[in-house]
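[audit] Reproducing an earlier prediction to check determinism. Same input, same settings, fresh worker. If the tokens differ from the archived copy the diff job will pick it up downstream; this log only records the rerun itself.
[audit] input (290 residues):
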Amino acid sequence: MPDDAPGGGATDTDRPDASAVVADVDGSGFGPGLAGRARWTLELVRVLAPRELRTRYRQSVLDIAWALISPVAVLVVYGIVLTQSFDVTGDGVPYLSLAWSGLVLWTFVAGSLGGAVSSLISARDLVTKVHFPKEALPLSMVGASLADLAIGLVTVFALALVQGVRPGWTALLFPLPVVLLVVWTAATGVLVGTVAAFVRDIPHVVSLLIRVGFFATPVMYSAAILPPAFEWTAWVSPVAVSIEAFRDAVLRGEVPNLGLLAVHLALAVALLAAAVRYTRSIEPRITDFI
């Protein structure tokens, strides 16, 4: 399973005007304190995310279609192995729809974290020359991956309809697990991106965890087939919770566990706040290590 999005995170050489773009977003106009910093960060993400997306697929013949080609290839290969060799089924829904929904959500996580973990390191010149909220860089990687996620979600609904799934009113709840996934990914992206500026082993660790997590998380299979000894992993992992809640709402026509979603969302928001606070506290030291 690829551990990042096609093209990966862009480097400074890919963004010759990044310093000028960031410098143009004057932080003094957003007010003092944490609220001002948050508005400054969001504005930077709004500017940097589209640039990252354009750079990611620049000079690519198939352009943003790569956002679907990579997971489709994984679906074909692993889908055949799981269904033919291990008799994995869709747990009451078409297997292709179940597996594709998991792949679309997982690809967003993998692509976002794959870019975020190296975002500060690859933008060394920008980080050392321009004063700005450093968390904006990993967050812009997550923001760029939102475009791929949006396209992928459309294909999930389309495939489900083609396979005879008729989403009920519960499908309207699909934004809840998606929001959880985005917030958790953003929080984790900021954290690993900041730590990676000090510990250069972190990108390798994240890459390994993404590869292992692909198999440990119910991406290509339903959490219902997990042995009793491992059922707890389906409600401890925020990614697994998001994937299964999305399937409940869209494919199974069931109301997902809203209490579990609320708990994980609260934890994800707290993690994001802690990650941003940590980045802010050590920001002066980042330029010394990077």
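[audit] rerun output stored. Observation attached for the diff report: The CA atoms of residues 7 and 244 lie 29 Å apart.
[audit] end
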